[in-house]
Structure formats: C-alpha cells, structure tokens
Specification:
The protein is an all-alpha fold. The protein has nine helices and no strands. Helix 1 crosses helix 4, helix 4 packs antiparallel against helix 5 and helix 5 packs antiparallel against helix 7. The longest helix is centred in the middle third of the chain and has 28 residues.
Length: about 200
C-alpha cells in the first residue's frame, strides 16, 4: 500500500479517536489498532502523538475551508452567497463530527501549538466572510460604505456564531445542516441587510 494511503488511514483512525476521546485520553495503541497497523509504524510515519494530532488538525482545517469555499456560489446576490456558504459549513461539520470536535473542542483546549493551527484556519474563514460582507456593502451602496473595521467585526461575530451553533447542532438530535444555516441567517441577515441599506441600529445617547 502506498505510504500516502497508509498515512490517511492512520489519520482517519486518529481523528475518530481524538474526536471521541479527547487528545489526552487517546492512545497511540488504539489509533494503531483502528488503523490496522503496528504502533511502531504510526511513530515511523508521524513521529509522535503531538505531530499526529497537528497533522489531523491541518487536514481537517483544510477540508473545512475547502468545503466552505466550494459551497459558495460566486455571482449570486449577497444573501444567497452567505446562505450557500453557511449551508456548506454546517453540512461539513455535521458530516464530519469527529473532525469538527478535533478543531473546535480538542485543539483549542490543549494550548500551543494546536491553538495556533486552529487560529490559522479560523483566520481564513473570517477573511472569506469579510470579503462577502464587504462585497455586499459595495453592491448595496456602489462604494465601500462600511468601514473596514466594522466589516471585520461583523465577520468575526458571524463566524463565532456559526462555530457555537455547529456544536449545538451536532449535539442536538434532529437538527439538520439546512435548519442550522437558516437559524443563523434569520439571526444575522436582518441586521446585515439594515446595515447594507444604511439603517444601522444606534445605541441610545
């Protein structure tokens, strides 16, 4: 079997174990057993438990970012682009719950270097969403009417809400990816649409 294929088998097993048991509770023996290889072979290919976990984070992060980008249809109206991106996000996290657990729960709670790896992935998604919101503002006003700082803050808020909602959706029986995406659209788009139309909410003086 080619090395690349064998490595993917090991990482598939590792993502399941890390996602379900957690980084500290996961054992290399169990990962090797589930992958159908010897433990020394896991160490030969992936060096250490830390390196294996890092490789899993990078693979799952790339898969998520690629899914969101592929799911967004260019050329559509801003709300349709956001809707398709959110559906892609929630579909991917629902279909890959162990991978999402690795990214959203395990990597963030075990310090460096894992948290940095997730931050890189999150930064890519935030940048992508920032682009969508900025494009929507230009489309509505025919010029970049929203300050860059406001656009960046809105993107951070939207991505944070999506992350929290994905965890809830995966833990709540019967919640579909479409329902989760619709929930976030209902929560966010009304406010975004008001901003696009030049009618932001203002705090009382």
């Amino acid at each position: 079997m080619p090395r690349a294929v064998r490595e993917q088998q090991m990482m598939d097993a590792a993502v399941r174990i890390f996602g379900q048991r957690g980084y500290r509770a996961a054992s290399m023996d169990e990962i090797a057993e589930q992958a159908g290889v010897s433990k020394p072979l896991v160490y030969l290919y992936l060096n250490s438990k830390e390196d294996l976990f890092t490789a899993c984070i990078r693979r799952e992060a790339k898969a998520l970012v690629d899914a969101v980008r592929a799911g967004t249809e260019p050329g559509l109206a801003a709300d349709r682009q956001l809707w398709s991106g959110l559906r892609a996000f929630f579909t991917h996290t629902a279909e890959n719950p162990d991978g999402w657990s690795v990214l959203n729960r395990q990597a963030r709670t075990h310090g460096e270097p894992f948290a940095t790896e997730v931050a890189v992935m999150r930064g890519e998604i935030v940048a992508f969403v920032t682009g969508l919101i900025g494009a929507a503002a230009r489309e509505a006003h025919h010029d970049p009417a929203l300050p860059d700082r406001d656009v960046a803050g809105l993107a951070q808020a939207l991505v944070g809400a999506a992350e929290a909602l994905a965890g809830w959706a995966n833990d709540t029986p019967g919640v579909s990816a479409k329902e989760a995406a619709a929930t976030l659209m209902n929560f966010s788009w009304a406010g975004l649409e008001n901003l696009m139309n030049g009618s932001p909410w203002q705090p009382p003086s």
